[in-house]
Model the fold of this input.
Amino acid sequence: MANIKSQILLVICFVSSVHYGCDEVFPEAPVENELLDGPMEGLSFSEQNQFLVGDIAFNDEIFTPESGLGPMFVATSCGSCHPGDGKGHPFTTLTRFGQTSPGQSTNLAVGAPQLQNRAIPGFEPEKLPDGVPFMKFTPPAVTGLGFLAALTDQQILENVDSLDEDGDGISGVPNYVTPPSYFEQKSIHEPISDKIIGRFGKKAAAIDLLQQTVGAYNQDMGITSTFEPIDPYSQLSTDPEVSDQTIRDVVFYLRTLKAPIPRSEENTVVLQGKSIFTEIQCASCHIPEWTTPESDITALSNKTFYPYTDLLLHDMGPELDDGVTEGSAETFEWRTPPLWGLGLSPDSQGGEFFLMHDGRAKSIEEAILMHGGEANDSRINFKQLNETNKQKLLTFLKAL
Amino acid sequence: MKILSSIYNIAGYILVFVCLNHTINAQQADSSQLQLNMDAVYNRPFLQTGSFPVAIGGYVEAQGEYFVSDGISEGVSFKIPRMTLFVSSTIIERIKFLSEIEFEEGTKEINIEFAALDFEFHPLLNFRGGIIMNPIGAFNQNHDGPKWEFVDRPISATTIIPATFSNVGFGFHGKTYQKQWVWAYEAYVTNGFDDQIIANNKGRTWLPAAKENEDRFEDNFNAIPLITLKTAIRHRKIGEIGFSWMGDVYNKYEEDGVVLDQKRRLDVLAIDWNTSAIKNLNITGEWVWAFVEVPATYSQQFGSQQQGGFIDFVYTILKREMLGWEKASINLALRLEHVDYNIGSFEETGGNIHDDVQAIVPALSFRPSSQTVVRANYRYLWETDLLGNPAAKTAGFQIGISSYF
Done:
């Protein structure tokens, strides 16, 4: 009898240890503002369905040689470059080359504009031609892109100050790019001489999310489509390896991903850091607040959001001049990257920061100190802050 | 005379059934006897009736589960992962045949997992040919659901070793006894893997992808056979330890005399063990390493080295008559698992490549007999992606039944 009692006690201890041994019986969902992925609020059921289909194509569809991967490629899926819809890791950094001055053809070097540094078995990857200047691009976060895509060209142009008429040292110019053949002009676009303002990519060379998506399938994964039927390996047109519907679903997914949610917004230190951000002129380019116009997606219409970008090109100084460019951008000009979600970067970059266009900055502070050109005054202002105020600013940026 | 003969036959078959049944029960109840993992294929209960020349058997598994992944649940689901039928026959003395046909998830997949003839020349020299289960690790051969206290199969045994992994081929096996010891070996050449193991939609080196090749039972992908070797030794009171290896060239390097690529090897090493040295406690485990030659210019997400394993502790807390079942038992169990699908570091940063999984599975089981198990598991799983971002956490409860029939 004593033996049975002791065994029953053992069972109770065992079950209890199971219950209390883990942090929780069922893992709780991460706090919403700690996550980058997920749909924006207000989507209809049919929009949620399309979002889900796009989500699967973006995050779960891994291409193989059988399904069209390569033969030369950089990554095997969209999600491998943008894990959790966040910033990418140097493992999937892109190498771009071929155009060394504004307005040139992008294909002046063999294999340009992008290096496909990997190849399926039995094939050799592309090699960078000797002596050719190049730039590396760390994949950006893709959350909130729909809000940026919804803005009108006119809204972007309102912040242009190419002659620095206000004398703040900040100019800001749009990158006017030649649209691809499949470009679908909308009422938000204001073409000039058949060129359209680009707003996506490190050099703002992609006009819209369709161009960005088609380009990524083609140049990053070697996947051809009816939009871009030329295979980067053979340079010949091939049968489409991804359907138009999948491309459209992925574009819809990108358009309807939620915007990153700031954390600790009411925290005193964060609020003080936000003030410092404006005081030292970071906000001159990293414009905090925007409002969308009417959109075909109701959830995107008339929404105020906080991306901290002006979507314009700025001279960032010789230290960030890689000698390569895209569209009408100068080699030393870079589009102001959105700062929303900055603090969550380590959650998608393997626990570290890889900031600036090529991941060369390993911390937010390092990234600030790498700002030159038009941002030089802000850099000097940052350096002159006392340690307490620097930490306040950094706390604010990590809360984005 | 015919009636008398039939009675003798029936009596004989019943005797065979009882003996086999007894063997199984004995193996389950008394692990000190000299049965090895490699014997698992024949060490099953069979039923033979009348003058029917074959014996049949099988097992079924069914389960219900509720899991939550990072706060999101897919709800309750029920499934029947597999139902397996065995058919065996002693054709003439020292020549026997056994087949194992598995129906997975209803009839989603129907596989012949084993269908081989055994010719015994000597206990140390048996020839086996047909569809065989490659003797890599222990679980691949000893995988019957009713033998385990856990609803899910071990992760390493199904995703590094792609259990159940069987192929067409031939080879030899044998064993010898010496007092408290038994030593055994197996050596086979079979069809093998293919290049889907590094070209699959899992996005990682994934040996189970080779099972997608529907032609593997009729054609060797690259004409180079997969060699599988295993040796195991068991002491009646201590337990068993096995060492196994399988290896071949996995890729299509040549076709119609045209060289397409260089040869790339796959090698898998495994060590398995089980012991009942401590009263009422069974400890079973397996550790496996996979080495795959991946082209240097391919993506690093396809690892060239993998490793993983599991260890099960099963403690019988009560064994007595319960609810009218004479040899019923209640067992507490715990499984610890770890798999690293990509051992290495990123060329770009020098940082560790992750892509790993850890799991802990406490379990409670009730066995009305050694052939039937009702089991309740709690499973907590941590999955870390390639880059080492915060792990995805999944946990849930599983209740399952499994029984030979």
